[in-house]
């Protein structure tokens, strides 16, 4: 009882063809089960296309048109073939089928651009044209529909972006982060450099070397580091430091007298 079937134009067409128009009772879709089930199939497929492409509901007409386009080229169990092959007598060509809602770069003809203008514009693939051999494309910037065949379809771009974002997002653990900050605060440049310890075999200028290195690290180390350095020094050095031997002086060589020299 739809208005698209109940009008004078449609009634005149049926009379010319000799067809009797038999309608169902109102509010009784059970009397037209075959059409109702076909409509449900189209609606379910169109809903899946919209949600998979993450498009707004206002694209329902394009999604329904694409659903019918794909259904006519899909294998039907009752027919044991595709509706397209049954009607045209040949198998459909599916090489042009692309993912619904994919991003598309549409080529701009040179007649519609200047020398330094961009040669392509981003669109969304929303269907296939039955009248022209091309894709139905939606321009988000201008909010218009165009039909073109000179396109580059980027089907996997959305998946790549989602994976890249997931790998780029990092949520640190607060407890582990606090522990790392404490460890970094206790560590300093002085801990990474070798300490000079006074031992029994150390030369006489060993203590001066330690004093110079300690003075150099005083401005770089923190109070916590100075405390650690003191503990290392006290644990490494003996309780009583022995006296260092005096620096040996080199003796002058004895003068020898040659045989020709007169005494």
From TrEMBL:
Offer an example of a GO molecular function term for this protein. RNA-directed DNA polymerase activity
The record ties this protein, via Pfam families, to: SH3_retrovirus
One GO term of the biological process aspect: DNA integration
The answer to whether keyword Nucleotidyltransferase applies is yes
In residue numbers, the region (Disordered) covers: 207-263
Q: Where is the composition biased (Polar residues)?
A: 207-225
Compositional bias, Basic and acidic residues, is annotated for 244-254
Q: Which PROSITE patterns match?
A: INTEGRASE (PS50994)
The protein's UniProt keywords, in alphabetical order, are: DNA integration, DNA recombination, DNA-directed DNA polymerase, Endonuclease, Hydrolase, Magnesium, Metal-binding, Nuclease, Nucleotidyltransferase, RNA-directed DNA polymerase, Transferase
All copies of domain Integrase catalytic, residue ranges: 1-91
Q: Which Gene3D superfamilies match?
A: Ribonuclease H-like superfamily/Ribonuclease H
Q: Under which name does UniProt file this protein? A: Integrase catalytic domain-containing protein
Q: What is the lineage of its organism?
A: Eukaryota, Metazoa, Ecdysozoa, Arthropoda, Hexapoda
